[in-house]
Design brief:
The protein is mainly α and 100 residues long. The protein is 69% helix and 0% strand. It starts with a helix and ends in a 9-residue tail after the last helix.
Length: 100
Amino acid sequence: MMTSELTPVVLRGVATSGVNLGIALGQLLSNSVVKGFGARTDRWAYRAPFALQLAFVALLLGGYVWAPESPVYLIKKGRADDARQALRRVWGDGVDLEAK
């Protein structure tokens, strides 16, 4: 789901900056792994970077269970009731969902 769909208007700049920060930190981590394992000549020279990538996959799959479906996607598929339910999970019951 896109950050701009769920984040309140006052926090969209911070959330978008957070996405960019995550990308920059990922590049820093990638360069650190290359620096740390690039000079090795054993099998861990290629296995360790792959193993570190799988750790992030496991982390993302663990959080996937709680991620709501995109309301925009659900509306495009004609599932307005499911879109309202996804918005209700994110925003709560006290919000005008039709306006969102």
